[in-house]
């Protein structure tokens, strides 16, 4: 699976094939099918691994921070650091197939592991907004994630673009999104 992960970081996911994977790993296609029913199952396993790594990185970044707002800020910075330090993995995690056929519904286990990766952020936002209803906490968390994801994507797609300082960006973003009602 490690070789597949490396291939995914350097190849277009839509053009990846069983033959490409097995050639790179030095095994026969039959050997791959002993562990995975097909290429999509292998790709789901790789994505699950990357989302788990992201969750672990976020959890570790906020583990010892008691102040809820500072925890959100630490999680946001950790998210951007993960995206910056694992560009290929990040791209694979959020890859959208560009085929012309109808978009497929993602595998339920990927949806579950994707949300699980963001639980630390949702929990931290909930601690900042303890009186807010659960749907508002989730919506605010998603808005924060959208802003972080956009910045992460822009920094890769347009490295020449002069983005604001990352720490200042996160500080302002957290302050703006987590305004507590009076």
UniProtKB/TrEMBL annotation:
**UniProt keywords, alphabetically:** DNA-binding, Transcription, Transcription regulation
**Pfam families per record:** TetR_C_33, TetR_N
Q: Give the annotated DNA-binding region, as residue ranges.
A: 17-36
Instruction: List, alphabetically, the Gene3D superfamilies matched.
Output: Tetracycline Repressor, domain 2
Q: Which residues form the HTH tetR-type domain?
A: 1-54
Name of protein: HTH tetR-type domain-containing protein
């Amino acid at each position: 699976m490690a070789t597949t992960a490396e291939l995914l970081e350097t190849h277009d996911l839509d053009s990846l094939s069983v033959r490409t994977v097995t050639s790179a790993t030095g095994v026969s296609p039959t050997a791959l099918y002993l562990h995975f029913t097909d290429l999509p199952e292998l790709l789901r396993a790789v994505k699950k691994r990357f989302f788990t790594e992201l969750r672990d990185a976020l959890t570790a970044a906020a583990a010892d921070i008691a102040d809820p707002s500072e925890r959100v800020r630490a999680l946001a910075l950790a998210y951007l650091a993960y995206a910056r330090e694992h560009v290929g993995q990040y791209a694979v995690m959020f890859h959208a197939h560009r085929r012309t056929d109808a978009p497929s519904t993602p595998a339920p286990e990927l949806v579950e592991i994707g949300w699980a990766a963001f639980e630390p952020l949702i929990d931290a936002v909930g601690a900042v907004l303890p009186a807010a209803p659960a749907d508002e906490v989730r919506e605010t968390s998603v808005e924060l994630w959208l802003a972080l994801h956009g910045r992460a994507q822009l920094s890769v797609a347009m490295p020449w673009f002069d983005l604001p300082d990352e720490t200042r960006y996160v500080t302002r973003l957290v302050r703006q999104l987590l305004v507590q009602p009076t």
